[in-house]
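If it is no trouble, might I ask you for a protein's amino acid sequence along with its C-alpha cells?
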Amino acid sequence: MSIDNLRLAVLIDGDNAPRDCLKGIMEEIAIYGTPMIKRIYGDWASHGLSTWKNTLLENAVTPKQQFAYTTGKNATDSAMIIDAMDILYTGKADGFVLVSSDSDFTPLAIRLRESGMYVIGIGEEKTPKAFVQACDKFIRVEVIRDKYKKPAKSAKSAPKAAAAKKSAAKAADKAPAKSSAKKSAAPAPAAPEKPPVPEDIISLIADSVADLADDDGWIDMSNLGNLIIKKQPDFDPRTYGFGKLSNMLKNLERFELQVRETSDPNVRPMYVRDLEA
C-alpha cells in the first residue's frame, strides 16, 4: 500500500497540541492517507481544555476523557498509549499520526514502527529530538501554521473598503493631471527573503546524493527525498521557504537538476547530481 493511501489513526495529546491550527493539521494529514480514527485525549473537566470544543466539532475529532488521578502525573499519555496498542492489534490502521510535542511518546513511536506501522509525528519546534527521530516522518506545527494561514477578512468591513476605493478612484479622475516630470514610480514591493539553507542541511543533501548516485553521479529526485526523510524525519523544504525539494535544489548552486524523457510523455522523472562531488 502506498504511503498516500494509508488508513491512519490520528491520536492527539490534548495537553501538548496546538488548538489554533487543528484544521490545518487535519488537512496536512490528508496528504498522507485517510484518517479513519481521530481522537484527542485530556481531562475535559479541566478549564484549560474547555476552548477545544468548537475546534473538535468542526474537525470531527472524538474527545476521550481521562481524569488526572494523581497530581503531577500525566494520565493522558497512558490512555493514549493504551488506545494506540489496542488499535494496533485490531489491525484497523496502516499507520499512526501522533500529535504532541512530548518526548514521552518516543517509546510508543518506536514500538509502532517495530510492528510495521508508518508513524507520522506532528509537534512544535520545541519537540525533543528523540521523539522526532523515532518517527518515519515528523512535521513541524510552525510549517503547517504558515501553510494554512489565511488573512482574516471582516464581512462588515468589506463594503466599506469597496466604497472607499470607489470614492478614491472618483477623486483621482477629478484631480488635475500632474506633470509627468514630477511623477515618481512607486517602488515595487520587495519579495520576502527566504531563510538561508543551513550548511548542515546542504551537507545532508550532498551525502544522500552520494549514497545512491549512479556511476555518473545522478540520483532520482524521489529516491533522494525518501532517503533524506529516513535520515532526518523533520526535514521539510517549507522550513526554508520552498514548496518542494526540487525548488529548493534549484536555488542551491551546488546541485544540478535534469528532467529526463521516457516512453510515457506524462512521466518525466527529475534527477539530481552534486557538482562538487
Remarks:
- Confidence is low (pLDDT under 50) at residues 152-158, 179-183.
- The chain has two domains: 3-147, 199-274.
- Residues 157-174 form the longest helix (18 residues).
- The CA atoms of residues 53 and 63 lie 9 Å apart.
